[in-house]
Amino acid sequence: MPPTRWLLAAALLLSACRPHASQEQETPPRLKPLFDALPARNRPFDRQDTLDSYWPPDSLMADSLFHFTAPPRSRVLMRVQFVPASAVAAARLDTLTFRRPTFRLYEDGRSGYEWEFFFGRNLEPTLTETPEQLPLRMALTYSHRLALQEYRRWPAGNYYERNAYLLDHNFGVEAVACVNDSVVYVSAFPLLANQPRPDTLYTYYHGGPHRKRPPLVADRPDTTRHALLRLSFRELSHSTNLE
């Protein structure tokens, strides 16, 4: 075979060995070193929240009072815990497979819970004023949303969302490793709190419209390292089967 044909055959063989596009997307991200302790300038992680969800069947949707009764209500206790880097190897957490989060419907054919981390961030401005209501400082805080969703299947086989628990958290999710329905580990960017930014132009009304440039501080992602977080939940109560 002429040399040019050998080169062509080798090129075709190499192209056939390339992974499928979906496999390339499943490649674990390159994670940065983990924090062993969270610096004081970063927003804290550890928290515990009681979250409610209400679910009625279609027959009760027309009743505007169902939200205020116990049978349609479910409740969970959710915890977010910071995991120091020194504890990762001891707990064998370094063997977990982390993947970038994807926002998708529950699609693996079973009932259970799904952790969905929303993309984007929510902005909450806070203005500090004098007793005379004159602006002193503007602060911007950011949060991200998590939805813990419970899915069930009808006897016919199609699935539906039974409950959804929403939590606004103050860290940016980079990669996720699910252990089971109740526990997920998250590699996240912490947020640096109250970072100075250029003064902002603010319009206020004090005996007429005025404009002023008060100092501005805002949250900023700390992308130098990752923080490892353990998210878990426990059911406190579950809505009654009213189907």
Mean pLDDT: 83
| Rg, Å, rounded | 25 Å
Instruction: Report the β-strand fraction as a percent range.
Output: 35-45%
Question: Which series of helices and strands comes N to C?
Answer: HHEEEEEEEEEEEEE
How does the overall form come out from the CA principal axes?
flat
Total helix count? 2
Query: How many E-type strands?
Result: 13
The amount of helix comes to under 10%
Q: Compute the separation of the termini in Å.
A: 72 Å
How is the main sheet built? Answer: 6 strands, mixed
Broad structural category: mainly beta
Uncertain segments: 2-24
Structural description of this entry:
With 243 residues, the protein is mainly β. Helix content is 8%, strand content 45%. The protein contains two helices and 13 strands, in the order ααβββββββββββββ. It has helices at residues 3-16, 21-25; strands spanning 47-54, 73-83, 112-117, 122-129, 135-153, 159-169, 172-178, 183-189, 191-197, 202-205, 209-212, 216-221, 227-237. Strands 3, 4, 5, 6, 9 and 12 form a six-stranded mixed β-sheet that branches. The chain is flat. The chain starts with a helix and ends in a 6-residue tail after the last strand. The model is unreliable at 2-24 (pLDDT under 50). Residues 1-21 form the signal peptide. Keywords: Signal.
Salient structural properties:
6-stranded mixed sheet; 243 residues; mainly beta; disordered N terminus; 8% helix; 5-stranded antiparallel sheet
Give me the secondary-structure topology:
Blueprint: H1 3-16, H2 21-25, E1 47-54, E2 73-83, E3 112-117, E4 122-129, E5 135-153, E6 159-169, E7 172-178, E8 183-189, E9 191-197, E10 202-205, E11 209-212, E12 216-221, E13 227-237
Parallel strand pairs: 5-12
Antiparallel strand pairs: 1-2, 2-13, 3-5, 4-5, 5-6, 7-8, 8-13, 9-12, 10-11
Signal peptide: 1-21
Keywords: Signal
Protein name: DUF5103 domain-containing protein
